[in-house]
Amino acid sequence: MASLFSSPLSSRSLSLLINLFFIFLIYLHFASPNPPPHSGSIKSLDSLAGGGSDSCSEGLAALDDHRSKCTYVISQSKCTPQGYIDYLKIFFCIFGQSPVLGHLLLSLWLFVLFYLLGDTASSYFCPSLDKLSKVLKLSPTMAGVTLLSLGNGAPDLFSSVVSFTKSNNGDFGLNSVLGGVFFVSSFVVGTICFLIGSRDVSIDKYSFIRDVVFLLVALCCLGLIVFIGKVTIWVALCYLSIYIIYVGFLSVSHFLDRKKPISDQVLRTREDLAEMGVPLLSYIGEEKPIPPQRVTPESRTQEQEYDILVLDSPKKQRSCFSVLVSIVGLPLYLPRRLTIPVVCEEKWSRPCAVVSTAIAPVLLTELYCSHYNGSKRNLIMYIISGLIGLFFGIVAFLTTESSRPPTKFSLVWLLGGFTMSVTWTYIIAQELVSLLISLGNIFGISPSVLGLTVLAWGNSLGDLIANVTVAVHGGNDGAQIALSGCYAGPLFNTVIGLGVPLVISSLAEYPGVYIIPSDSMLLETLGFLMVGLLWALVIMPKKKMRLDRLVGGGLLAIYLCFLFLRMARVFGVLNIDR
């Protein structure tokens, strides 16, 4: 079981296969030959450019050949890419005569972006947060609901921030977060209950009711905001404070639990450390982590420096195939490795540390200019950031050793690694959101549907594999850990993952109000989601907190019913007046 969680690619690969299969179904449906339109039904390109269509997808749908679509996406500002790559131009102008190759290329790039998003969070973001919690001497409870929560919820949080701020598609962010919350709280919990329903496993009643009630309160407040259609900075801050109150409840309960017997304290500690669904293998597995071996100056050779730079793994654990894969993956690995300071002893490399401190300011400047200045680039800012990076690189070279990571100013190094991992997570999330919006325009469907399904599944399939494995193999403690993660994690994504973008967006409109993008399906999603939570909240106590198959079957039925209705609308099987 330890090997399952030590491989970030396993869950990501499964999630991407499902996502690619979903996109393939959409391709088969929307790429089927359509009957020729009636004469005069297709608007001219000039009329479309003059504002005859409200969105890029509507304008593309009114054109019937790839040349006119290529001209349209180049000339229309509403088709401007939200990231660094113009996917619509690539698809219609380069692969216009071979759309199958275009779909294959975009699907492959979608796989890469999902992998990069998850790998950046697991390899760079979470380790820096873990070390920060130790340096700051946070209690397990506070670390679990703050830094560890942020680490696990980073993909959803940054995808939501990008959709609200950079791409101005708030409905995409709302649907992606709610889709992930619905998937975890209904499908994952239902799967767990169904698989271990015959084992007579029960969970703590207080923790379950606390997490579900807080999640319901957060969803009710969010539903009220969506129904009103606008939000002020003060309302957004009040919504964000729900999680602060939740952290306060956890802190108080943790303080009170100190007076309980030792056995109860151990169980509560396990639960607190797993609030975000992080598997505790030391509690439920038999394998013990192998402590990293100390590397001495004599054993640190140039070959080992190359191993860390290329593979981040010992030479004896590599095969020819892994070396080949690592070489092919270098273009995806090196940009992050050479810009994110890593101070883990097993991954320490002085050349990489010096280079990362030198390049990091330039990357931050590029992100700032692309976000606030658009296509305009300020040469002076790049020169200043380059000089700052050169200074940091010299300081890093003079104050570090080849044999071990720095012990002095470790907090500064950790904050640098945290900042750059946040930067890369944001950049990758921005590109992922841009690609999904472009796919929505290509297929002629709402990007919010892709956010509700593809992005939500891609960010949540890891939770499915991790939590189900912990629940199945961990006994009562494993079930408690898994269920805590299935509700506390979605609570973080709902409040922080949507609260932070709402605060940023409403602050940009201050003293005015931020208008919530209109999406009639948002309230429907919220309704189904709360029905699933109420089902678990009512049935579980009646079953004496046992993970019964009746609970799991009901949750699975609710989620699949919702998914069927939404997909039926996408494929035109079911038309309901909205």
From TrEMBL:
Residues 107-250, 414-566 form the Sodium/calcium exchanger membrane region domain. GO terms for cellular component: membrane. The chain crosses the membrane at residues 12-30, 100-117, 138-154, 174-196, 208-228, 234-256, 379-399, 411-429, 436-457, 521-538, 550-568. It is a multi-pass membrane protein. InterPro entries: CaCA_antiporter, NaCa_Exmemb, NCX_ion-bd_dom_sf. Belongs to the Ca(2+):cation antiporter (CaCA) (TC 2.A.19) family. Cation/calcium exchanger (CCX) subfamily. PANTHER family: CATION_CALCIUM EXCHANGER 1, NA+/CA2+ K+ INDEPENDENT EXCHANGER. This is Sodium/calcium exchanger membrane region domain-containing protein. It comes from Brassica campestris. The lineage of its organism: Eukaryota, Viridiplantae, Streptophyta, Embryophyta, Tracheophyta.
